[in-house]
Design goal:
The complex is a heterodimer of chains A (about 170) and B (about 550). Chain A has about 170 residues and is mainly α. Chain A is about 50% helix and about 0% strand. Chain A contains seven helices and no strands. In chain B, helix 3 crosses helix 10. With about 550 residues, chain B is of the alpha/beta class. Chain B is globular and about 70 Å long. The chains are: A mainly alpha (about 170), B alpha/beta (about 550). Chains A and B meet through helix 6 and helix 7 of A and helix 7 and helix 8 of B.
Chain lengths: ~170, ~550
């Protein structure tokens, strides 16, 4: 299990076509930073923050994609935080339930996150919460809010700047 | 090697500097206008909700970039942090041609006559340097009017008896009301509040050769792609350049005002767009870099007569840093308040700017500009889960059924809320950076809390089913409304510039921006800065005797 991050990512690239990541409703492009295990944990994490219902949840809307892209750009400084935070979440899941976080049922996942929100990993929880909201409700141009799903859900026009169409209101 | 001498160097192409540059150029002076940022055209506009002047999650849209211009911020426990411009604590104002006026919300308030007499009217609370201005509303009145007509303002305050007196109506009518506006207008009527159409530096009809607002909601924080928002970048600065008497140099970083042994400025040292140190000699130097950067530049300009920085003999440069204490309330409604029509804020009251029992001043209250979805995620009532199905349901149900009302409480200035030069940290060019420290006066918070209650009452009367308050914390103020660091006054011992914005003891250096504000008004400050720029320019022009000031 001690493969290097580079090797790990390379193996993802080669394995991608054959084994699309299970975390998303549609096939996810290869991740730039996250390992497959990290992406699975993060995907489940985000879906508890913004769960699927009549409208897509966070992962389906591309939130993991948004975070992954930004982790190689604006959020570079958070790379170690994500590595440590997601590993610790999986550790907690294994200790309590014997399997990785993504494999737990919704109730168990929610309980773990509620504990995290109150515990020593609160800063990581807050970071993921903020990034998830950005990825879900922010502009699709940054890799989240796929097809403007959240804007459709809210009844906001997409693209959002219609201006002249409303000129004669 | 020094560049060819000009009559005036204006540092900073924002609200103040843009106007001064044009007024001097129109009077025939040769002017160089230095701007540290870039020059954006309306076609550079990007409506990016994660990267704009108000939401900097993915960086600043209008400068400065994160990698070259840090500041140091000292928190209330005395801990210093070096932070980039996109950090909220940086107190950034846009660094670009037009400064804040390229992307602002564009409210165009005249200060209230009482705002110039705060100490006489109310007395300074303990721990505050609250003071009167050395000039009165009447001194500025003609220049408010000049700004309103030359830059362009739409709106109509005439429904309010609390509006400052004016001789001439605004040049443009208000935009038609939005749904939110009508809901709040009905509520104001019930309470007997005198609501009116906010004066805005925005074309409601074609004006100044530019088109009318297209009513998009992505206004405050963004540049306008149809160029309907009136800033200095699309009014006075192009006029200055067209006069043939003004040269604009962008990406030019002022290092210091050069001062001779007699205390006269001889010019400005700056780094040009290629990072080369240049010396621009001039008869006259105008500092218009916004409250934090103007103070920093003066403090970095040391000379024989001013060893602690230009104009800083008495340790007042950088003091009294203030902004506004924004407070208000949120209301949730049963019916849709959303109609997808911008620009957002449109209705306001000035009933509580003054005359609040036991309080020194108050605030204008208005509906908030925008609630883009990303903003609304954290606009939740107390006790509401911040995530999960309940939060998603809340977003779905109330995004289109909410109104925010808020206002900028006029702050009690504090001597120890200040800009200094950091002893260690330097920017990309090797210039010592600004170090910010201090906090808000308790009375500012007290006034803010009362204003929040007033906002809540207004929302209730307008039919809000659930309301809650948005209050302010005690941390340092500043931000886009930063002001106060080069106080205007008659006594050189307790101020930095005289009543004409001229630095005490220095014959040819002026500071023209929010720095000179003694107090910052209970309204957005930009029109006041513009009026001061016209006012100070008039003084410079009438004092000008080819080759120097009289």
């Amino acid at each position: 299990m001690k493969r290097s991050r580079t090797l790990n990512r390379r193996s993802v690239l080669s394995a991608l076509a054959a084994a699309p990541l299970i975390s998303c409703g549609r096939s996810e492009a290869e991740h730039r930073f996250l390992t497959p295990a990290e992406a699975r944990a993060l995907s489940a994490f985000c879906d508890r923050l913004i769960p699927p219902d009549g409208a897509p949840g966070a992962s389906r809307a591309g939130v993991v994609h948004y975070i992954d892209i930004q982790l190689t750009r604006r959020f570079k400084r958070f790379q170690p935080v994500y590595q440590t935070g997601l590993a610790s979440l999986d550790d907690a899941a294994r200790r309590g339930h014997g399997s990785a976080f993504a494999a737990l049922d919704v109730a168990a996942q929610t309980a773990l996150l509620e504990a995290m929100e109150q515990g020593k990993d609160k800063p990581f929880f807050e970071l993921v919460l903020a990034h998830t909201m950005q990825g879900f409700y922010g502009s699709p141009r940054h890799g989240g809010n796929r097809d403007g799903v959240s804007w459709t859900m809210l009844g906001v026009p997409n693209p959002p700047v219609r201006g002249r169409l409303h000129y004669e209101v | 090697m020094a560049l060819q001498k000009v009559n005036a160097v204006v540092i900073g192409a924002g609200a103040g500097g843009g106007i001064v540059a044009n007024q001097l150029a129109q009077a025939g002076l040769q002017v160089v206008l230095l701007e540290r940022g870039r020059n954006y055209s309306p076609w550079d506009c990007r409506k990016d909700d994660l990267r704009n002047q108000r939401t900097t999650i993915l960086g600043n849209a209008f400068g400065p970039d994160d990698d070259r211009e840090p500041r140091v911020v000292v928190d209330r426990n005395g801990r210093a942090r070096t932070i980039p411009p996109s950090d909220g604590a940086y107190s950034n104002n846009a660094a670009c041609v037009g400064g804040g006026t390229l992307s602002y919300g564009a409210m165009a308030w005249r200060f209230h006559p009482k705002d110039f007499r705060m100490r006489s009217l109310y007395g300074a609370p303990e721990g505050s340097t609250l003071e009167d201005w050395p000039i009165a509303y009447d001194d500025l009145e003609p220049f408010y009017e000049q700004a309103e007509w030359e830059i362009g303002v739409s709106g109509d305050e005439s429904a309010s008896s609390f509006a400052p007196p004016r001789r001439k109506a605004l040049p443009m009518p208000p935009l038609p009301p939005t749904r939110e506006h009508l809901i709040l207008a009905a509520g104001a009527k019930k309470l007997g509040l005198q609501a009116f159409d906010i004066p805005m530096l925005r074309n409601s009809v074609p004006y100044g050769g530019r088109p009318a607002c297209m009513r998009c909601r992505w206004c405050v924080g963004f540049a306008c792609e149809v160029n309907a928002k009136c800033g200095t970048q699309n009014t006075v600065i192009p006029r200055a350049l067209a006069s043939g008497n003004c040269t604009l140099r962008t990406e030019s970083i002022a290092k210091e005002v050069l001062v001779d042994d007699q205390g006269r400025a001889t010019g400005v040292a700056y780094f040009d767009e290629n990072g080369r140190l240049q010396t621009q000699p001039a008869d006259l130097v105008v500092v218009s870099c916004c409250a934090i950067e103007s103070a920093r530049l003066l403090l970095n300009s040391r000379s024989r007569l001013f060893p602690r920085g230009l104009g800083n003999r008495n340790d007042w440069v950088g003091r009294n840093l203030q902004g506004h204490t924004y407070t208000g309330a949120v209301g949730l409604f049963e019916q849709d308040t959303y109609d997808d029509v911008g620009p957002g804020a449109g209705i306001a009251i000035r009933d509580y700017n003054h005359g609040n029992p036991g309080l020194r001043g108050g605030a204008m209250l208005a509906n908030e500009f925008i609630r883009l979805p990303i903003h609304f995620t954290s606009v939740i009532p107390p006790g509401m889960p911040r995530w999960g199905q309940a939060h998603k349901e809340y977003m779905r149900r109330f995004y289109r059924r909410s109104i925010m009302v808020q206002g900028p409480t006029q702050e009690m200035p504090m001597f120890d809320s200040r800009v200094q030069i950091d002893p260690e940290v330097k920017d990309h060019w090797g210039i010592p950076v600004a170090r910010l420290s201090g906090g808000r006066h308790p009375h500012s918070l007290e006034i803010g809390a009362v204003m929040a209650k007033k906002a809540e009452e207004w929302l209730r009367a307008s039919g809000a089913q659930q309301t809650w308050l948005k209050l302010a914390g005690p941390g340092l103020s500043g931000g886009q409304h930063q002001a106060g660091t080069c106080r205007m006054g008659n006594d050189p011992k307790t101020s930095v510039v005289d009543r004409f914005c001229r630095v005490h003891d220095s014959a040819n250096v002026f500071v023209v921006d929010g720095s000179v504000h003694v107090t910052n008004g209970g309204v957005n400050p930009v029109l006041n800065i513009m009026a001061l720029a016209y006012y100070a320019s008039q003084h410079m022009v009438t004092s000008w005797k080819g080759g120097g000031l009289r």
